[in-house]
Write a structure and sequence with these properties.
This protein has 94 residues and is of the alpha+beta class. The chain has one domain. The protein has 3 helices and 4 strands, in the order ββααββα. It has a 4-stranded antiparallel sheet. A hairpin with a 2-residue loop joins β3 (62-67) and β4. α1 runs parallel beside α3.
C-alpha cells in the first residue's frame, strides 16, 4: 500500500453569495459583501439579478463556480472586492 500526503494550503471558505438566475433567486451569505450593492441602490441605481451576476463575474478578486444551475462566488479580500465593484458600478451608472 502506498502512502499519500495531503497538504492543505488554504482554508476552504463558504461562498459569500449564490444565485440561481433561472429560478430568480439569490442570497448574500455575508452582509459585508452586500453593503456596496445597498449603497448603490440607495443612490437610485437598480440592478437585476442578471446584472449582479455578470458584474461579479468581471471582478478579478472573485472566484466563480457554476454548478447545477447555481452561481457561487468566493472572495478572500473584502477590500479588493469593494474597490473593484465600486469602479464597475460607477461605470455602469454613467
Amino acid at each position: 500500500m502506498k502512502k499519500a500526503t495531503l497538504k492543505i494550503v488554504r482554508t476552504v471558505r463558504y461562498p459569500f453569495y449564490h444565485a440561481m438566475v433561472e429560478a430568480r433567486e439569490e442570497q448574500f451569505l455575508d452582509d459585508e459583501f452586500k453593503i456596496v450593492w445597498d449603497e448603490a441602490e440607495s443612490q437610485n441605481m437598480n440592478f437585476t439579478l442578471e446584472d449582479r451576476v455578470e458584474l461579479l463575474k468581471m471582478l478579478t478578486c472573485i472566484k466563480h463556480l457554476y454548478h447545477d444551475g447555481v452561481d457561487y462566488f468566493y472572495c478572500l479580500d473584502l477590500d479588493a472586492y469593494w474597490e473593484e465593484l465600486s469602479i464597475l458600478i460607477d461605470a455602469k451608472g454613467k
